[in-house]
Amino acid sequence: MEINGAKMFVKALQEEGVDTLFAYPGGTAIDLFDALYDAEGIDMILPRHEQALVHAADGYARSTGRVGVCLVTSGPGATNLVTGIATANYDSVPLVCFTGQVPLNLIGNDAFQEVDIVGITRSICKYAVTVRKREDLARIIKNAFYIARTGKPGPVVVDIPKDIQLAMGSDEYPSEVNIRGYKPSEGVHVGQIKRALAELKNAKKPVFLCGGGVNIAHARKEMQQLAEKTGIPVVTTIMGKGAIPTDHPLYVGNIGMHGNLASNKAIMESDVLFSIGCRFNDRITGTIDTFAKNAKIIHVDIDAASISRNIKVDIPIVADAKVAISKMLEYAEPLDIKGWVDDIMNVKAEYPINMNRYDGVTPEAIIRTINDMYSNLIVTTDVGQNQLWTTQYIDIDENKQLLTSGGLGTMGYGFPAAIGAKLGNMDKDVICISGDGGVQMNIQEMATAVALELPVTLCILNNGYLGNVRQWQELFFNKRYSSTCLRYRRRCNRDCQNPDKCCPKYSPDFVKLAESYDAKGIRVTKPEEIRPAFEAARANTNGPTVIEFFIDPTANVFPMVPGGKSLNDMILDC
Known about the structure:
The protein is α/β, with parallel strands linked by helices. The chain is 35% helix and 17% strand.
């Protein structure tokens, strides 16, 4: 039987088990949308901007472990996906992004809304392809889903010209994938595992460093078992937080630019550093030539290209984190390192991260209230100080999950990601923690959350600044606050040190803005108002709630390692 390409597209989604499609219509995709009109089992989500759309698909994918799927039209619709594709690529999130395209005979003629989206995205995704033959459509879609979810997960772009959507062809959908040159590793070299464990056996100061790969591989349970079996302390990157529960006695904390002293000290003093699913980026390592310079380094990563790219590795292990950890559990033995663990934990107790230096409503108090009130939770963040405070204070265990843009650092990610996460996990509470700067990059998605009646809580930490850059300007640029004050007007005094006296009123009023969308808006200005605000948000089960928290504009994120410095050069406070 023959069907047109648009109907094959719908059949492919159904065969791949797609139940949620984040989509925004347009001229070159209108035939696909028409075919979807009668499709059973696919929930069509209409966000208000394509960038938010791909972030929502990202949040859905991260929170469920399934492939996130989106569909947009050509030209600006396609280019609006670029930031979200790059975000997913950095953080290894499986997405399949479908874009409409002008007919084949118009490609290259500067047709209306024509862009070379394959050329644009090739360097920021796992695979990008334009379908040029109707007979290839089903195979390409099948391959796209396989590539996105296997090996090191990531985004795939499939560009479908309008004439391919209308062309007739077979209704058969492939049952198998056979891609020449793409054979993801599924096992692990046992010899390398035994070499690594032999190094651990002789270690006096070993440390496990867990990156996002542990969470992507759904290896939390196995990682906790490995830590408990060996007795080795665990530190995490921001993306790796939750690899073992944050209240576990072997969990030290996050490392890197805003990690705690105990974690960075553990890394720098270790004699064997066992890294699993971590890229060793600059925010983690600080100055490379001083990073763990006395340690033998073992690196487990599913991507061979990531090993020894930034940090020279002594024992490489190319494998999926869960596969490698499971194999290690077969051979691992307890280590006699209680003194080392006690030393690290004593440092953690002596130098806790807190915001006691600040009065009024603090991010610490907000996040600790969330820890206390919510037990079945997904937290998303935007990027900036809000993200860093969240990663410092949020508690993560088997019933809690943290979604954040780690590698690209994308402002505007948090709220649409929360919408996607809620759609994939209706049984969980979902909270987005954002700043007053980043939230405005996709605040229009409040309309989406209201239309879908999603009880998502959006926490806006309002300090009137682009806070993370302001902090750098305060510490390293002699308080020259260039373009970071969100109350600034052309006639303002740029050297103003007290915005309440010399700056205009802050705009927008987030409570009124929420109410204009028919959402619930709450403003918090005192510590005693924090818990009642969350109680009211939890009681609002028919739509989103915005809680605007006014925090100290001068509040900074500490500890901090200045850019280009060693992890030994931490600023504990100012």
